[in-house]
Amino acid sequence: MIISELTLKNFRNYKALHLEFDPNLNIFVGQNAQGKTNIAESIFFLALTRSHRTHTDRDLLSWDEKEMRVSGRIIKKNMTVPLEVSLTSKGRIAKANHLKENRLADYIGNLNVIMFAPEDLAIIKGAPSIRRRFMDMEIGQIRPVYLYDLMRYNKTLKERNSYLKFDPTKIDTDFLDVLDEQLVTYGHKVIDHRRRFVESLMTISTDLHDKLSHGKEKLVVRYVQSVKTDFAAELKQARQKDLFRHQTSVGPHRDDLQFMVNEIDVSNFGSQGQQRTTALSIKLAEIDLVFQETGEYPVLLLDDVMSELDNQRQLDLLSLVIGKTQTFITTTTLDHLQHLPDKLTVFKVSDGEIIKEN
């Protein structure tokens, strides 16, 4: 899978931009705050209809503009598929093959991308909510039905939490039983999706981590479930506590991931080098996982991470992805990049202007 061209209108600092890409390696070089990351973000947005940097749509629009559009042409399985995502006064509109998708979940999966940026270290050492978001985004790309199940679960969860705020003397236990039944139904589906995802991710990432650490470290990825055995029973058992606290205390909305390196919890006790290698192993594992699920390799976005890696990790990274995936790298300089392949395209970025170099 490759993205052959990209067109932006009123996206961040690009009022109008059209780019054609190399099918192998594309490097965007420029100083900070010139617009390099905006290119990676726009490709991510085209794939997932949202940004990896902000939850506020207004941040994505050029100054004083009310609408924006990102479009591109994707080549996969010997077919060319035009994609387009717009933010308009009517909301978010996604089109595949010029046809509007009524549900965003039906659109996601047309373009699979894996993003690796400095903030992705938060997957390892950040809050559990970041790891849940990581699972949600990655599973949603390869199994769009997951997004539907998650949406129904979150909708029921929100309704249950709102009902728990009622006066306890006015609570209808029969209605609460109905909400619990719905929560369990969709919760089991979310849990099953996540369990299968983590099992596959661990199988691949353990092998990759062994290679990246040159046999010195063993990585184990664990899915830490809030539900221990019986969701329905645990939900019922926690009802009085939930009524007192006005929130649901058990369910996949409280799940987490644990990363163990040589039997040590790397999130809390690992060195910075171990945390970076773990994050790199997880991201690289996603590439092969997408291939297993879809039959095609995703597009890889490396946003300002090469300078964060030492020469050996850079070499390991490039050797594992070049020739396998179409890769986009943003960087402030080419000086620290080692062992680049012959087939690549370099784009110089300065104040929102992009020049393609030979």
From TrEMBL:
Every RecF/RecN/SMC N-terminal domain range: 3-352
GO molecular function annotation: ATP binding; single-stranded DNA binding
Localization of this protein: Cytoplasm
Residues bound to ATP: G30, Q31, N32, A33, Q34, G35, K36, T37
Predominant location category: cytoplasm
Keywords: ATP-binding, Cytoplasm, DNA damage, DNA repair, DNA replication, DNA-binding, Nucleotide-binding, SOS response
Record keyword DNA repair present: yes
One Gene Ontology CC term in the entry: cytoplasm
UniProt GO BP: DNA replication; DNA synthesis involved in DNA repair; double-strand break repair; SOS response
Family listed: Belongs to the RecF family.
Function, in words: The RecF protein is involved in DNA metabolism; it is required for DNA replication and normal SOS inducibility. RecF binds preferentially to single-stranded, linear DNA. It also seems to bind ATP.
Full protein name: DNA replication and repair protein RecF
Organism lineage string: Bacteria, Bacillati, Bacillota, Bacilli, Lactobacillales
